[in-house]
């Protein structure tokens, strides 16, 4: 069978939506086909089993969560200071707000990884590579802060986004978004 890359991407995007809406238990070939509005059996022709599907979804999530090269280049035209680090943190929140389904799908993948050792190994590798990419990007771009500062920002932002997406009213009443991000960057980078 000839694989259509655009259709494969559409199926993965549909799988992300299903994960965000129904959770891992709702992620079936039938649900993906329905969400993608393709004939029944299409998803199973592209992904031989659930592990292959989950791995492909994980990679698609990472692609969708990355900022565009143009956006990064534009940001890096500014002075490499704490204000730029603050801008990058706000950009992460803007991307989370713009693509909530993707972040929710990532949370579902993380939860599913606690029950599926193969997915856990694959996701652990992908996330570790992502963390190292962020540390290297910070260093190579001449941004302020060392490895520990990047780790503090990563884990705090991950938790903050999790709260905003799962219990937005609680997060909003607990802290002002702009103030939180500003204080976080200030304390992490100092």
From TrEMBL:
Q: Which residues cross the membrane?
A: none
- Which keywords does this chain's UniProt record carry? DNA-binding, Transcription, Transcription regulation
Report the residue ranges that make up the HTH tetR-type domain in this protein. 5-65
Q: Which organism is this entry from?
A: Lentzea albida
Q: What protein name is recorded for this chain?
A: Transcriptional regulator, TetR family
**Annotated Pfam families:** TetR_C_31, TetR_N
As one GO molecular function, the record gives: DNA-binding transcription factor activity
- Keyword Transcription assigned: yes
Q: What lineage does the source organism belong to?
A: Bacteria, Bacillati, Actinomycetota, Actinomycetes, Pseudonocardiales
């Amino acid at each position: 069978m000839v694989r259509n890359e655009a259709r494969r991407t559409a199926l993965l995007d549909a799988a992300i939506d299903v994960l965000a809406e129904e959770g891992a238990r709702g992620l079936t070939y039938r649900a993906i086909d329905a969400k993608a509005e393709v004939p029944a059996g299409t998803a199973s022709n592209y992904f031989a089993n659930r592990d292959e599907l989950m791995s492909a979804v994980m990679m698609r999530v990472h692609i969708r969560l990355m900022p565009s090269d143009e956006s990064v280049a534009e940001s890096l035209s500014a002075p490499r200071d704490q204000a730029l680090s603050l801008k990058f943190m706000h950009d992460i929140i803007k991307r989370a707000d713009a693509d909530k389904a993707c972040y929710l799908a990532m949370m579902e993948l993380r939860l599913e990884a606690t029950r599926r050792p193969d997915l856990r190994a694959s996701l652990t590798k992908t996330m570790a590579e992502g963390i190292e990419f962020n540390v290297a990007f910070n260093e190579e771009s001449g941004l302020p802060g060392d490895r520990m500062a990047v780790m503090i920002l990563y884990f705090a932002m991950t938790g903050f986004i999790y709260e905003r997406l799962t219990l937005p009213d609680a997060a909003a009443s607990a802290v002002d978004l702009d103030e939180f991000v500003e204080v976080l960057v200030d304390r992490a980078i100092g």
